[in-house]
Design brief:
By secondary structure, the protein is α/β, with parallel strands linked by helices. It has a domain at 39-151: Glutaredoxin (3-Layer(aba) Sandwich), CATH 3.40.30. Helices cover 49% and strands 15% of the residues. The chain has 6 helices and 5 strands; from the N terminus they run H-E-H-E-H-E-H-E-E-H-H. Strand 2, helix 3 and strand 3 form a beta-alpha-beta unit. The protein is elongated, with a radius of gyration of 27 Å. InterPro entries: Phosducin-like_chap/apop_reg, Phosducin_thioredoxin-like_dom, Thioredoxin-like_sf.
Length: 189
């Protein structure tokens, strides 16, 4: 090949390379925009009863929504709100909302707060009602991450429950004795 033929070949390769790079750039831009659309949350949104349907039930296809129903002046509710702010920043593809019980659910019993609901595609997937189910004032951000991860609402990398289950020997003995006693009574009759 002479110099002119090599130059022509080089120009052809450049055009092909440019086309390939342009195609790759468009594909990558599309992926980034889809990811940005999915990662559009990142904070905790305050809602009211009027917002509930749009923000929770109609949040979008395959969008996980974590709802915290709380009351003002309850320290555990304040703690859970703080934890949710941290989790919302770490998991921007999950929508986090909160609403005062008196505003979102009229006559909601105060003994039931804090309450956490998890929705996906408008369906309730899981709920934790009251301080006992949320570990009271001992609740840690890791506990909530684990709970949400077990349902699938956040893509956690936690492999082990941070709150190891404690085997209560006294309770299990009471249960065994009660169950065994009932069985003996039933068999003896």
């Amino acid at each position: 090949m002479n110099k002119d033929e090599l130059d022509d070949l080089e120009d052809e390769i450049d055009d092909e390379d440019e086309k390939m790079f342009e195609m790759y750039r468009r594909q990558r831009m599309k992926e980034m925009m889809e990811q940005q659309k999915k990662s559009s949350f990142g904070s905790v949104l305050e809602i009211s009863k009027a917002d509930w349907v749009d923000q929770v039930n109609k949040a979008g296809e395959n969008v996980w929504v974590i709802v915290h129903v709380y009351s003002e002046g309850i320290p555990l509710c304040k703690l859970v709100n703080q934890h949710l702010v941290q989790l919302a920043a770490r998991f921007p593809t999950t929508k986090f909302v909160k609403g005062r019980a008196s505003v979102c659910i009229p006559n909601y019993p105060e003994k039931n707060v804090p309450t956490l609901f998890i929705y996906r595609n408008g369906d309730l997937k899981k709920q934790w009602v009251g301080p006992h189910e949320i570990f009271g004032m001992n609740c840690k951000v890791e506990d909530l991450e684990w709970m949400f991860g077990q349902v699938g609402a956040v893509p956690t990398e936690m492999e082990e429950n941070p709150r190891k289950q404690i085997h209560d020997v006294m309770q299990s003995n009471i249960r065994s004795t009660t169950t065994g006693g009932m069985m003996t009574k039933m068999i003896g009759e």
